[in-house]
Amino acid sequence: MSATHTPHASSAKYAWAGGLRVFAAVMLGIAGLLAIFRGIMAIAEDDVFVRTPNYVFQFDLTGWGWVHLGLGIVAALVSFGLFTAAAWARYSGIAIAALVIIANFLSLPYYPWWSVIMIAMSGFIIWALCVDRGEDAGVGR
């Protein structure tokens, strides 16, 4: 085999990264949908949430509901863009997942276990979107 056969090797080398993009799209869509539900619950002031009086970042539960609802809607929309392998969606997905991490950190006292789970899930989303280099990987060259 000649050296011109290397695009196939490059393609095989980075093929797993495309799977990570799909993983990130699915997980961002799920995280967005769950954030939408969490936002609706907080806006309705459901009794599911814990109230801690001595937290440094203390905000109104309804305000947090609107924050999570907005982030959830944007995350769900960006996840659809990730299925098309659009570069804007990849960068937006990283930014939205980072905002989800910050929002869940700040709302830890209201729903602690779920906040920790969402922080971890968003970390995996950021990792998957950073590993998938898309067209930059040299696939097919």
From TrEMBL:
4Fe-4S listed as a keyword: no
InterPro entries for the chain: DUF7144
Keywords: Membrane, Transmembrane, Transmembrane helix
Pfam family, one: DUF7144
Highest taxon, organism lineage: Bacteria
Membrane-spanning segments: 20-44, 64-83, 88-107, 113-131
Domain spans labelled DUF7144: 22-133
Keyword Transmembrane in annotation: yes
Protein name in UniProt: DUF7144 domain-containing protein
